[in-house]
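Write out this protein's structure.
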Amino acid sequence: MWYVGRYGAEEAMSRLRVGIRRLNESHGTPNSNHEGYHETVTRAYTPLLSKYYASCPAEMSLRERVSHLPRSPLADRDALYVFYSRETLTSVDARASMGGARHRSASPACDSGRTVSLIVELHSTPHISAERFT
């Protein structure tokens, strides 16, 4: 989230792509078709985190924003399955690139009482209702 707050979603994504790969390599985790860096996960979560960050009150510190994140819909381990089937998200193609675009609304609000719409570009028909995020 620090990258998103400091650089914005687009620059954060560029830096995360490089940083995640380097971190994996430093821990001996290969960035391959089956493990390591995952392009779709990075490209899906970065704008969601950016919208979450922006939905928090301006006076809220980064530490406070991070502490609220576990109570947001983004902390759900199945959050991306709102947009992707398990089969699609775990595919080699999804790991390597995001592909074409679909749009779906989600609400990664900092304050669970507020709903923030976010348009996320997706390449698969969602199999779980986006209402989980509202």
